[in-house]
Amino acid sequence: MTNIDVAFSGGKDSAAMLLRMIELGEKIDNIYFANTGLEYPEQYKYIKKIQSEIKRKITFVQPDTTFWIWFYGKWTRGMYEGEMRGFPRIVTHGFCCRELKVKPMNKIRNTDNTLCLGIASDEGHRVQKEKNLRYPLMEWGWSEDRCTHYLKQRKLENPLYKRLSRTGCWLCPKQSMASLKFLYDEHPRMWNHMKKLEKESPNGFHPSRDLNELENKWKGQCKLNQYFDERDFGWR
Predict the structure, then answer these.
(1) What pLDDT digit, counting tens, does each position of 133-183 carry?
(2) Among candidate residues 93, 140, 96, 94, the one with its CA nearest the CA of residue 116
(3) For residues 25-53, b (16+ Cβ closer than 10 Å) or e, as one string?
(4) Cα–Cα distance, 187 to 164 (Å, whole number)
(5) What phi, psi does 43 have (nearest 5°)?
(6) Is the pTM of this model over 0.85?
(7) Does the N-terminal or the C-terminal CB of the chain have fewer CB atoms within 10 Å?
């Protein structure tokens, strides 16, 4: 009999996958959440809500390092050797995904178990053809919209989706403009912390985004309403 683990991020796809698997009576051995320590407060509240709903423990997988160690650390080789790293010069998943999610997950879980990943049927390009990986949403033909509909039916949608179409770390340079506007509107202390980091980083926050410029643009504007679609905002 195959042992099954579930990777749960708090996003709509992995949430729909987890809840539907339980609904179908699948026997899940472990539910893992890779805790970067950088999620929105709303995300942590949502994870606790889901844990209460399913009456199952969600294991928070803690990394051996932190974003801060990387940010304030120095390059050990290459043209920037000896310089502080700061925000990445090329905006990719890089360090955070590898060191704060993938490695800790591989370290804690039994790699002989089948790991279920929440990738919707309309995101097939994200599928990794590796041993012991399973994609239930692909098996069911569930798209992102179907996952959203399912969660709304069960009244278990993540409240972050009222403002965003994607969830993620609050200081990620890859986040959308709508996500940055949400941070500015709802979490001013975190926004100011990110501005501080931008000043300290040798190469700023993002090659094409200056936080002070964005703030000046947004001052005096009303908050995006809760049904705003970030695709209408101009920048992705």
Answers:
(1) 999 999 999 999 999 999 999 999 999 999 998 898 999 998 999 999 999
(2) 140
(3) eeeeebbbbbbbebbbebbeebbeebeee
(4) 15
(5) -70, -45
(6) yes
(7) N
CA–CA distance, 117 with 14 (Å, rounded to integer): 7
- Count Cα neighbours of 185 within 13 Å in the Cβ-side half-sphere: 16
Cα–Cα separations (whole angstroms), residue 28 to 49, 70, 131, 219: 19, 34, 18, 48
Please check whether residue 158 is in contact with residue 10, taking contact to mean a CB–CB distance below 8 angstroms. yes
**CB under 8 A, 24+ apart: contacts of 79-87:** 80/202, 83/202, 84/200, 84/201, 84/202, 85/202, 86/197, 86/200, 86/201, 86/202, 86/203, 87/173, 87/197, 87/198, 87/201, 87/203, 87/204, 87/205, 87/206
In contact, 11 and 118? CB cutoff 8 Å: yes
148/157 Cα distance (integer angstroms)? 7
Domains and CATH numbers, the chain: 4-158 (3.40.50.620), 177-232 (no CATH)
What is the residue type of 215? E
Token output for 221: 């504007």
Report the alpha-carbon distance of residue 161 to residue 46 in Å, rounded.
11
> If you ran DSSP here, which 8-state letter would residue 73 be given?
S
Torsion over CA of 117, 233, 174 and 11, rounded to 10 degrees? -20
Strand pairing class (30-34; 4-7): parallel
Question: b or e along 152-165 (b: 16 or more beta carbons within 10 Å of the residue's beta carbon)?
Answer: eeeebbbebbebbb
Neighbouring C-alpha atoms within 13 Å toward the C-beta of 217? 10
